[in-house]
Amino acid sequence: MQLPSKVKLVDVGPRDGLQNEKEPVPAAVKIALVHRLQDAGLRDIEVTSHVSPKWVPQMADAAEVMAGLARQPGVRYSVLTPNMKGFEAALQGKPDEVVIFGAASEAFSQRNINCSIAESIERFAPVVEAARAKGIHVRAVMSTAVGCPYEGEIAPERVEMFARLARQIGAQHLGVADTIGVGTPRKVQRAMEAALKHFELDAVSGHFHDTYGQALANTLACLQMGIWQYDASVAGLGGCPYAKGATGNVATEDVVFMLHGLGIETGIDLDKLVDAGKFISDFLGRKPNSRVATAVLNKRSG
Amino acid sequence: MQLPSKVKLVDVGPRDGLQNEKEPVPAAVKIALVHRLQDAGLRDIEVTSHVSPKWVPQMADAAEVMAGLARQPGVRYSVLTPNMKGFEAALQGKPDEVVIFGAASEAFSQRNINCSIAESIERFAPVVEAARAKGIHVRAVMSTAVGCPYEGEIAPERVEMFARLARQIGAQHLGVADTIGVGTPRKVQRAMEAALKHFELDAVSGHFHDTYGQALANTLACLQMGIWQYDASVAGLGGCPYAKGATGNVATEDVVFMLHGLGIETGIDLDKLVDAGKFISDFLGRKPNSRVATAVLNKRSG
């Protein structure tokens, strides 16, 4: 089994995770979470989203959160910027990376970002141009790359199409996201192969949900393809908006446990990461949605 | 990715799962669970254990459960028989398979079955001989094959030693069990490679715990070695006696979802399996400990 020797994890908890909380989390708590993540060794953190507070009140404090960060050198702080208005709002916070967020499924694009795939690409193009002109890294995320709650299975050709469009407008990185967690190892590999037709191995990452418990198996399958960048969410923050009570983002703790067990370096201190997850879970009044965190916390309490 | 086209799952829920419940489950409920499992397509079910009711009151009804089964042709009903006394008690129930249960870790053997590994093998030898004389299949299970709660990591040499001893006394099959769920894909593969020095590929199975969420990734790694037999427990029955509240046996539902997604046949109807898990979980007054069951039940309830 030939695997990468190092893996970079992007913790998307503060953004993708907390965006799905019913009650907005105070900016100070979000800032404290980012600080704990960077202290645990995370070098890539998706911090917030510059979107309309009317649609996403959970992220209304984006500017405050970015302004409040005690930044560490070597850490990349990224923000979602769905359009030029968001991008311009983001600039003051000096993000290291902006994220544009589309879909491989037409129906999901319509329902999630209220426009067709083609329209979304048109909307993203000036954002990419403006970001690159300012030397800001651009990551495109393709949601529903394996399955869609409205369209069912997504063919690899659809993934390739979105990847081609994202490449054409100048995105430097493509995140391949199994938004509803229905992917299994071979399906995920086929989606990745399609993405790799337009992006280099070093410019592709996996974003897996654990709704059906498949995230780590899918990660292993992608590691075997040489893919070395993955999103994950501390304490499994995020839930799954399409199935109440179900699991969403894979927990960073669980991914780290597997990677370290495989002898792969992440630069992350698992104990501190569990602490970060416990911190935010305590605030939210629930237990971390991570099997590793559960086992580690049980072990600690004897 | 070359994988087996078919996989056989052994549901260990009625035995390994319910043995870990504080309150003994009534025989009628156990029988109903076995019936639901066979109706869902399971062809291998670990039903009960013939052990001292003083030590394991949960299995005191072993004879009653075996006598109460409406057996289906083609289904293998297995029982644990730790010694000759248990084996003789088991005979009346006409099991298709008896299971002997040892450990790769000396400390675990001492604490779990109150004897050394060498003594356990001595105790098992007459059981194997008597079973084979009667044409009953014998499966040996090696617990703590990757890690031990008392000794830490277990070297593959220890696995090989237990495998050699089990083979010497005539066991026909070896189950390699990661009892505390600390295994990750490469470690599990190394344990399997050691087991395969003494047992053929068709005579080895994997038994993984999901305590750290690694069971499906470990299963995928073993599928890639050609291993096509796995234990699992419906609804994740079993818990983890070494970490309160943590997950034990991997849920059969989660394994089936991955296998079917990979295009591997199991003969199991996932919906009926989820029903079986819900049946026993409702009886126990909790939710199934399976991400797939959670997602499927959420989806059903709309």
UniProtKB/TrEMBL annotation, chains A, B:
GO terms for molecular function: hydroxymethylglutaryl-CoA lyase activity; metal ion binding. InterPro entries: Aldolase_TIM, HMG_CoA_lyase_AS, HMGL, PYR_CT. The keyword Manganese does not apply. GO terms for biological process: ketone body biosynthetic process; L-leucine catabolic process. Residues 7-274 form the Pyruvate carboxyltransferase domain. Belongs to the HMG-CoA lyase family. This is hydroxymethylglutaryl-CoA lyase. The keyword Metal-binding applies. SUPFAM superfamilies: Aldolase.
